[in-house]
Amino acid sequence: MSFRFEKLNVWQDARIFVKHIYEITRKFPGDERFGLVDQLRRAAVSVALNITEGSDRKSDVEFRRFLRMSITSVEEVVTGLYIALDQKYITQKQFDNLYQEANNLVARTNSLVKSISKP
Q1: 25, 67, 69, 108: which could join 50 in a potential S-S bond, CB 3.0 to 4.6 Å?
Q2: Which are the contacts of 98, defined by CB distance < 8 A and separation ≥ 6?
């Protein structure tokens, strides 16, 4: 048995994104543990969780709403990454890689939104 969300490529991408955010935030200063680290991790996890929750909704309208919330969470992560870059917690290369991953995740999510919007 499997759940619907497990078959979604965008959910699989979100899991990888979460993994990368956790990996990078492990190297942040200890005094950021309950600040930026926590915020970045919660926002990244929210990406995958919103896809999951929306996938089980009984209407495409609700599913699209959760997918849009997922996109908002990706954008929250990107803002956190800018802050991490400004504080020199991450390098420009790390930022660029995660920024590209975020863009790809948003693009795939938007594609899914469009595909379930068609009559």
Answers
A1: 69
A2: 20, 21, 24, 77, 81, 90
What are 63-108's pLDDT values in tens digits?
999 999 999 999 999 999 999 999 999 999 999 999 999 999 999 9
First-residue to last-residue Cα distance in the chain: 29
* Distance (Å, whole) CA 78 – CA 43: 10
- Cα 69–Cα 60–Cα 56 angle in degrees, nearest 5: 75
- The CATH-assigned architecture of domain 4-117 is Up-down Bundle (1.20)
Phi, psi torsion values for 91, nearest 5 degrees: -85, 165
Look up the pTM and report it: 0.93
